[in-house]
Structures are given as C-alpha cells and as structure tokens.
Amino acid sequence: MVQKEHLLNKFIILLFCQLIFSCSETANKKSNNIFEKVDISQVPNTSFFLNDNKLKLQNGVYYISHKPYSGFIKEIYKNDTVKKFASYYQGKQHGTTKTFFENGKLETERNYKNGIGYGRHYGYWKNGNIKFDFSYFNDKRQGMQKQWYESGSPYCFLMYKNDREDGMQNAWRENGKPYISYEAKDGRRYGLQKSNLCYTLKDQKLKVKSK
C-alpha cells in the first residue's frame, strides 16, 4: 500500500513538471511570433576596434568624424582574442551583439533594434551550458524568461508582459525541488512561494522594481 502511494506521488510530480515545461514552451513560441528579424542590410561591412581614437561616444551614440557610425565594433582581450563584437547603425546597437570568454567560447548573444533590446538574448556558462534565454520587445521583457544553473538544471521560468510579471512563475532549487510556483495577474500573486509547497500566499501584492 505504501509503495503504491509512493509511486502515485512520483507520477503526480512528474506530470506536474511536464505540464510546466509544456506550457512554458507554448508561451515562448507565442512570444517569438511578435519579433521580426532585425534588418542589418544597411550596416556596412566595416569595423573599428573599441579603443580606436577615431571612435567617439556621446550620449550613448558612437561617432566618427562627427557623424553617427554604422558598421561593427570589436573589443579584444590582452591575448588578442575577441571579447565583444557588435553591430551598429547610426551610432546605436542594431543587430546582434556577441561577447566571448577569454578562451573564445560564446558568453552572450543579444539582439538590438535602433539601440534598444529586441528579440532573444542568450547567455552561457563557461562550461558551455546555457545560462539564460530572455525575450525583449522594445527594451521590455516580454514572454518567457528562462534561467539555468551552471549544472544545466533549470533555475527559473518566469512569464512577463510589458516588463511586468504576468502568468505562471516557477523556480527550482538545483536539486530539482520547486522553490516558487505562483500566478501573477493584474499586479498580484496567487499561488505558492518559498521552498515549501504547502505554504500558500494570500493575495500578495507585487512590488515591481524600477530599472
């Protein structure tokens, strides 16, 4: 009897986890539909190093000879490996910006449109495992925001709409045990929080941190 109950509980937990991952994938596909591919056809195939004296940064815009710069900007480590490679149009980040670890492995890959965060942003641990997968629309978090531990275990899957929590929010300890699980709706949280899933929130108001 005890063994049957144990197997039933295990099945329920597995079913719950599968449901969460399935919902998160569906939400991510929906959020991706709002992103158009950033057009970089007008970005010329020219590049400058970040420390080039010709490049001037003023109010977040890069200039060369008093004109907004269009092209690519590189930054390198002391060992001459690439640290950062970014695409610019009219002086602002436009297209993909990549950063690398000193060993040459990809660290982050972010997308911009006219100087603001747009589309998917990825980050990786030094061991190559994915660290985060964020989605931005006009510099605001939109859709599923995912993070992982260095081991590869999921850390948190959070739903956002217009830079605010909206929908199911889930997080886990590195051992796989649920840490938080609640729904955010209209500025309030409904559900379960902290490590003990028997702990129930009572209509707790959200506190949104300003940037």
In terms of per-residue confidence, which ranges show pLDDT below 50 for 5 or more consecutive residues? 6-17, 19-33, 195-211
Tell me the radius of gyration. Answer: 21 Å
Percent range for β-strand residues: over 45%
Number of domains: 2
Mean pLDDT, to the nearest integer, reads 82
Main sheet characteristics? 15 strands, mixed
Count of helical segments?
1
Shape: flat
What is the total tally of β strands? 18
Q: Give the ordered list of helices and strands.
A: HEEEEEEEEEEEEEEEEEE
Q: Indicate the structural class.
A: mainly beta
Query: What helical percentage do the residues reach?
Result: 10-25%
Distance between the termini: 54 Å
Protein name: MORN repeat variant
List the SSEs and their pairings:
Elements: H1 2-32, E1 47-49, E2 55-58, E3 61-64, E4 67-68, E5 71-76, E6 82-89, E7 92-100, E8 106-113, E9 116-117, E10 119-124, E11 130-137, E12 140-141, E13 143-148, E14 154-161, E15 164-172, E16 178-185, E17 188-192, E18 204-205
Parallel strand pairs: 1-5
Antiparallel strand pairs: 2-3, 3-4, 5-6, 6-7, 7-8, 8-9, 8-10, 10-11, 11-12, 11-13, 13-14, 14-15, 15-16, 16-17, 17-18
